[in-house]
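Notebook entry, structure prediction.
Reason for the run: the old model in the group folder had no record of what sequence produced it. Starting over properly, with the input documented here first.
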Amino acid sequence: MSADDHRYSAVNGVHSKKPKLTPPETHIPLTLTLITPSEIAAEFHHHDAAVARINNGSFGCCPATILTAQRRKQLLFLRQPDHFYFSLLKPLIEASRRALLPIINAESIDEVSLVDNATTATAVVLQHVSRAFNEGRFSRGDVVVMLHYAYGAVKKSVHAYVSRAGGHVIEVKLPFPVYDEGDIIAEFRNALNVAKLERRKVRLAVIDHITSMPCVVLPVKELVRICREEGVDQVFIDGAHAIGCVDVDMREIGADFYTSNLHKWLFSPPSVAFLYCRKSKENEVVDDVHHPVVSHEYGNGLPVESAWIGTRDYSSQLVVPEVLQFLERFEGGMEGIMKRNHQKVIEMGEMLVKAWGTHLGCSPEMCASMVMVGLPNELGILSDEDAVKLRYHFREKFGVEVPLYYRPPVDGEVGGLTGYARISHQVYNTIDDYYKFRDAVNQLVRDGFTCAQLTS
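New structure, fully documented this time:
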């Protein structure tokens, strides 16, 4: 093994011993051997070698093996579209849905649909809520609760579908930095109490499993439990970053709706996500959940509706079994990858804050494969626009791709950090990626740089 392989092995926890045998029902060959560091590098050779890509959280990554499998699926359609549509598409999508069942611990395949991404899933759920307002099942002024740090597209969807239909939106103000789950739980309870004091019925709570920016893993099981205690009608978990990053267990979490992108942390090609809709006697209204694109399958249930929304490329939804097989090439499979990514992102985050004299944005227990890293105040990040311009500067001048976050100072605060970077760790990352970012920041500070010097 080369020196680079040894280093890559240290970063990613790759070992030479054979993995545990996988049960036959997963259809993964029992002779599968563990991936080597050089094979990892080859799987992601299509990445731009000039860029330190420490932003897996935004768009994910897809290995060459899966891209090859996807191309085979694309050719199934291109060779004979009629045969693909009438004979192959539905069973192939069902195979992908069925392969996900044990990964997310759903009770029935009928609860699992495949859609393009978490934004599409959000439209499915919120159009369902909008119809309830428009048809009089919900009253004007009834509430949807969402987090202040909800993903931008989700916030706009809530206002587009709920506010325009007569619903009232209450945002949960979450603290940041945050080092205690109890602070999040307290703020969530406060939001529900506001609705109670105003005598408003809470129809839906939209809760992130992992907030996007700033990123924090939330105690979703506890928040769902509180919703049940407080009589919230339905709970929708936006787990866009979750699968492949944290444990995702539908029965334990207990939400009515849950979505997660497979292309962020599960190595799927863009774009594919699952949407879980809980089936129960108390949740019969999920029969009124439909795909936002109405096509020939409308009325046949969301899983079937989602499997055909017109002529398009469905290949990313068809390679889920191959993706799960790819995961088994790593020691410990998906769980092993998640554990090592968490360990490494904390290690790299702590290395960076030590170099810059700053701090992490949350406790290690409240992050997964991403963590917020405080940036030196000398950089002069004083607005959202500064964060955007500085991110572009890192990309263009230093070859570092990393999202930046502006945190407005709190009244009376002295010396609080106003800038944070969200760093990710995925199996293709090496320590040099983070050294490159560290050195870029140090150079800017040494040069007396501030964001005020950047033009739009």
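Summary: Confidence is low (pLDDT under 50) at residues 1-11, 13-30.
The old model has been moved to the deprecated folder.
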